[in-house]
Amino acid sequence: MIDLHSPLHLLQAPCLEIPNLWIKRDDLIHPIVSGNKWRKLKKNISFARAKGLQGLLTFGGAYSNHMLATACAGATFGLPTKAYLRGDEDMDNHYLRTARLFGMDLLPVPREEYRDKQALANAFQILHPDWLILPEGGASEAAEKGVAEIISELPDDFTHIICASATATTLCGLGQGIRKVGATAKILGIAVLKNAEEQRQKLDAARLSDVCEVIESYEFGGYAKTTPELMDFCRSFIAQTGILLDPVYTAKALFALKDLYHSGYFPAEARILFLHTGGTLGIFSEKFL
Ligand SMILES: *Cc1c(COP(=O)(O)O)cnc(C)c1O
User: Fold this and answer.
1) pLDDT digits (tens, 9 = 90+) for 240-249
2) Is 69 in a helix, a strand, or coil?
3) From ligand 1's centre to the CA of 167, what distance in Å?
């Protein structure tokens, strides 16, 4: 079984120049698999096991943390896994090799076909009615419930919790956790791609806009894009702390946190927590090294 209760400690990183910053180490939930992807999968896996389902199917690009997490979760709990891979990408990288090690069956499909994931899912489900199909990125109601558990692992005096945000599933889950325990912390999601408006709509629909906020302008050009400034920041932080960051998610979120802090965003009495969502395999991508 995977123990999801991750460490919480003060973060000493000279490059941030932030005294009293706390970090929740969901990157330590698993050496390779994204912490937040484990959180999101947890209740889906329990469901699949309780129903006696026979396997897990999902979708992803060649560098998908969710795809890899599904492969590892399947291997951990004895469920075979398959993933439809968005075609015409690099089909032999460290993500795909690792997913294969976990026994995942990778099924590349051309981009046009991949676009209609519902059609692929429907066709698959007819042939395999006893498999659980998980959406791209792992977004679901069960996923949010899994994420909400993070809040119960924290003391209740944090005023701000910050993390990287893409589908806003993690953000919604944290918001629901805050609601449930009646805490007052504000959840800040740093948009790592240019979809802040879409993320806000999701928060509105979930009636979480008073608890959660999406912050934009730290996309560094878009999803998986980077700049020399971001890479320098990422390298300094890693060298100063021994904690890995990845340029796709966590480095952008932490860069934003530093910037917000030094531009006076937080009140003096703020108790700030950075949620390290994992994804550390990302830094080992050829294009970043
Ligand atoms: C997927 C991912 C996120 C984004 O989570 P969402 O729930 O989609 O907003 C953040 N950090 C890491 C490391 C991830 O892999």
Assistant:
1) 999 999 999 9
2) helix
3) 7
